[in-house]
Amino acid sequence: MSQGLRRLAPQLVTLAAVVALVSAFFPGFLAVEIADGRLVGSAVDVLKRGAPVALLAVGMTLVIATRGIDLSVGAVMAICGAASAWAVSNGLGLGAALALGLGAGLLCGLWNGVLVALFGIQPIVATLILMVAGRGVAQMITEGRILTFSHEGLAFFGAGDVVGVPTPILIWIVTGVAVGLLVRRTALGLLIEAIGINRPASALAGVNARVLLIAVYVASGLCAAIAGIVVAADIRGADANNAGLWLELDAILAVVIGGTSLLGGRFSVAASILGALVIQTIDTGILLAGFPSEFNLVIKAGLVVIILVLQSPRLGPGLPGFGLRAPRAAGVARTEKATE
Amino acid sequence: MTSRLLPLYATIAIFLAAYLVCYLQFPAMLSTRVLGNLLTDNAYLGIVAVGMTVVILSGGIDLSVGSVIAFAGVFIAVLLRDTGLHPLAVFALLLATTTAFGAAMGGLIHGLAMPPFIVTLAGMFLARGAAYMLTIDSVPIDHDFYDMLRSYQRLPGGGRLTVIGATMLLSVLAGMILAHRTRFGTAVLALGGGAPTARLMGVSIGRTTVLIYAFSGFMAGLSGIVFSIYTGSGYPLATVGTELTAIAAVVIGGTLLTGGSGYVFGTLIGVLTMGLIQTYIVFDGSLSSWWTKIVIGMLLLLFILLQKGLLMLGHGRGAVSAT
Amino acid sequence: MLLTIRDLTKTFPGTVALDGVRFDLAAGEVHALLGENGAGKSTLIKCLTGMHARDGGQIALDGQPISPGSTQEAQALGIGTVYQEVNLLPNLTVAENLTFGRQPVRFGMVSRRRMHEEAREMLAGYGLDHVDVARELGAYPVAVQQIVAIARAVALSGKVLILDEPTASLDARETETLFEVVRGLRARGLGIIFISHFLDQVFDLTDRVTVLRNGRHIVTAGTAALNRVELIHHMLGHELEMAEARRGVQRDGPAMLRAEGLGRRGRIAPFDLTVRRGEVIGLAGLLGSGRTETGDVLFGRTPADRGALREPDGTAVELRSPRAAIAAGFGYAPEDRKTDGIVADLSVRENIALALQARRGWARPLPRAEARRLAEDYIRRLDIRPADPEKAVGLLSGGNQQKVVLARWLAMNPRFLILDEPTRGIDVGAHAEILRLVGDLTDAGMSILLISSELDELIAASDRVIVVRDRRHVSELVGEDICTDRIVQAIARPDADPEGARA
């Protein structure tokens, strides 16, 4: 356990610092009240609004651990949200709506995974296709409108609450814990890390790299589907144009803040979720603290640069958890080209 | 026919075939009017795509360009509003800024040995944030000089060749010369062919990387100027996602997204193909706009698979080599 | 002397790559530089071309001491290199490659016409008149690319030309074309360093030979004064000083596997091989002879395209992938442990458990305590240092990394284990340990295919020795025949059809 805490320390410290900073400008930030039997407060708001990025970050972590990247998750969110909204607005039940939404995410993930693992196309290129076309597909489902619905069952996933806790919070916690347990209580995590660090050696040791690669993209697609359903449920409508727009970048950023290197290898789902919360706290905090929201992006940019410096293979190992990779013989050679 | 040219021919063939389909259905589409509009409407995209082509030829990527265009528009609008500077002076200031910005990203990519993707992602946030910090509103540009910049040359058949359309064509020409007719361009292709080999052959990797992203920054700045002429305003929320459209245009233009092979001219055709799809949808009237994205996505897939296939053919030829 | 090297020393963390090496090159000679992997050839070349900074010693060109700091500097001094993997860019045109960095420029623009003229001039005399310099280099066969690379190196440097395995991917006719070019350059007075593992070519082309082994200079002699047997003796040598100690008991267990005509086009000619229970089969041959390729085919790493591997009862063993081979009870410790063996960022424990875990499947994780026990057990048995199962394996020395890879396979308890150069770069103590381990394992019934370039090791450990040459199994030695002389003779025997197996 202490080892786990040590791994998460940089992210926890970052989050605490950001929270402290926001609290300094907006003293009521951490205050939580109960109104109408629901938890309300800025911190609760952060946890709720952070749900989409946190969910995306879970899947993205696994993809990045294999040295991949999934640019399509924002578009997949739009597709899946649209699919679920289409289902309920056409009178299908909640079960069918969820099945359609999740099924669409699974198919999208499978598409990406097949392009990457079987066709050997670079992940950034392979997922770019769905990133571009996906939004068109989502618009096709919604027929270009914002597809609204009034199905309470579906809306529950975005706007409802369970004993006062907003459902989206529960959803990302459950997803995060489930995926975290799945990869760490089974051997998946180890095998994913192994192919991310050295795919030829892993394959020679009998690791089924192809199937694992497809699996991580499917997982990413499913996480995007859940995020898409949550977002659609929250606004009771599927907005194919704006649902999940540019969230893939936030998700990647969350993973990077979480200390998982873009060069693959060691990962931590929990740290990525903390990264997502850091981003959301900055987003919300800037608004609350009365700063113009335009600072937001500049702060994000600064954050990325700091983390890049800490992770840089050329500058040697930095902080544990941020620059957590051990120095390796072929360190600098492991740029994107090295696999060609 | 060499495999390097094949994607370019494919690009041109697809464009011509698409134009033929359009023409058969709507004969009015074959006119200088449509062609002129195609150039004008896609001028900013074409210019930024030239910069992106050079970046991608080197095996990199530049996600910051969409934000830089928005920043440029806001920068120009605010400076023209708040200072007495002549637009030309503002343009010079702007281009110096965006070029330096690109150079800084190139420096970070090389200095930190980090993927261009994430470095330029930071650049994307920074440029967009900087645009927001200048203003959060749409700032109209009202200047006599701008009216002059909106002038055009009548073409036979009633079409208009605008200043910005011409600027785009000149940019493509400049890009073609830079990429294919200078030592720098050869160094860019060498970098895209493989950094270790390029180093062996005497390419200064750091210097070249900085110059590549500086060029992309310059073109993004120029594209921002053109965009401000096109829209007559500066708006920090403008051109979100243009980097993706530009990347798509480059790939549809036949350039290998992994670097080392491609033509700036192909990028022009890629841009025009994408513009053509949109024009067709406008002409048709009943088709929905999402088809643009889906068709572009399918074209992307087509080109990526085509190039993967060519690459495998190439490997097949050399497959006898020892371990 | 055109080039003189004295006392050249270069150490890397954990290994001495070059230890007081000397080398001379005269103008107008082709001088072969020979040695197995790890002998120090490439380190010497890299010190000479400025890619490595040497730790000690002198290099003099035309009597002047030099210390090139980069390939460019070396080139400017007159030392040009052509590597095995063509060091030009296939995505540029022939002319661009030839004139790269010095393209004729007018008004800032490259003049294509003059560039093409210059390129044609540079290619004149190389017999490449049919090559269109405006086409991309990648469109031409590797042989043409090699000659273009040579033309560039000669034009840029002009004194010393280093050819590093230039013929590795050429067929016989292409090789001969290349040799004509090299002979022409020799006549023009260049000093040429020729690195190749094809001994026929060394005898065919070179004037003198220098052999390196384990970072030390072994011998320099005129090629004509050497015979193949001596040369191979020098290259493989006696490292162990263990006086050809044959293993005590000869094993002749029941047949466990039978390869029938197993082979793969372009890599290893079809071979028959019977593996008996509990025996060690040694595979002797020079670098590039087909020894590693045999292991690759037997493990499904490059699946065979002909023949079959059968159980004693005749059922075929599926060998389409490493996974299939592992399922059949095989293990494989590859030659290049850095790229194909270890997973650097994972701990010793995780590396040891990796193959076991992959076989169990993701859903049945090896309990951490068990993995740890396993790791501690092998750390003790193989004396892996530091004895910390949680240490990232990339931080260990080469020898200890090798032990981790071995431990990974031993933990699988395979019935058939392929060891490709298991003792390379390992200190003498660990060396003996690993050989002892091989003995213990076979006592327990495991069969081992031992691929090694160290004859003493093969002799000490093997029950049978298969000799490979030119990608073909050429003879099998048993009993008293397993001795240095017989192995060297078998490797050296000039082949009737030296090019036939390559294609």
TrEMBL record, chain A:
The chain crosses the membrane at residues 12-30, 50-69, 76-104, 110-133, 154-183, 211-233, 245-263, 269-290. The keyword Transmembrane applies. It is found in: Cell membrane. Its main location: membrane. InterPro entries: ABC_transp_permease. Keywords: Cell membrane, Membrane, Transmembrane, Transmembrane helix. GO terms for molecular function: transmembrane transporter activity. One of its GO terms (cellular component) is plasma membrane. It is a multi-pass membrane protein. The keyword Iron does not apply. This is Sugar ABC transporter permease.
TrEMBL record, chain B:
GO terms for cellular component: plasma membrane. It comes from Roseivivax isoporae LMG 25204. It is found in: Cell membrane. The keyword Transmembrane applies. Keywords: Cell membrane, Membrane, Transmembrane, Transmembrane helix. GO terms for molecular function: transmembrane transporter activity. The chain crosses the membrane at residues 6-26, 63-81, 88-111, 117-136, 157-178, 184-203, 210-231, 237-257, 264-283, 289-306. This is Sugar ABC transporter permease. PANTHER family: ABC TRANSPORTER PERMEASE PROTEIN YPHD-RELATED-RELATED (PTHR32196), INNER MEMBRANE ABC TRANSPORTER PERMEASE PROTEIN YJFF (PTHR32196:SF63). It is a multi-pass membrane protein. The lineage of its organism: Bacteria, Pseudomonadati, Pseudomonadota, Alphaproteobacteria, Rhodobacterales.
UniProtKB/TrEMBL annotation, chain C:
One of its GO terms (molecular function) is ATP hydrolysis activity. CDD domains: ABC_Carb_Monos_I, ABC_Carb_Monos_II. InterPro entries: AAA+_ATPase (IPR003593), ABC_carbohydrate_import_ATPase (IPR050107), ABC_transporter-like_ATP-bd (IPR003439), ABC_transporter-like_CS (IPR017871), P-loop_NTPase (IPR027417). Residues 3-239, 249-495 form the ABC transporter domain. It holds the Pfam family ABC_tran. Keywords: ATP-binding, Nucleotide-binding, Repeat, Sugar transport, Transport. It comes from the Bacteria. This is Sugar ABC transporter ATP-binding protein.
